[in-house]
Design a protein that fits this description.
Blueprint lengths: L3 E4 L2 E4 L4 E7 L8 E7 L6 E6 L3 E3 L7 E6 L4 E6 L8 E8 L6 E2 L3 E6 L1
Parallel strand pairs: 2-11
Antiparallel strand pairs: 1-3, 3-8, 4-5, 4-9, 5-6, 7-8, 9-10, 9-11
Amino acid sequence: QVQLVESGGGLVQAGGSLRLSCAASGRTFSSYDMGWYRQAPGKEREFVARISWRTSYADSVKGRFTISRDNAKNTVYLQMNSLKPEDTAVYYCKASRFGFADYWGQGTQVTVSS
């Protein structure tokens, strides 16, 4: 069982930055691929970034967002720079591992004002 708790969301002006954190419970954090997803009002949840042995990003955030992890702290981060109003969404953290169920956090709201 893995429990995920996101933090770091808030209200920021366009062009600003935020860093999201996702703290995981359990002793097997390093064996999980970690990802960030987001869901804007009236839209489906969409992929943002993922970190395994490499990183990958949605085209919409490439060059602006950076995903990283600290296995000693059981935490994954999403550094978001040059934020745009269209980045406004609830951001969710996901832990995935082949052969095991996915785990999701409860989400953290990010609002970017124009």
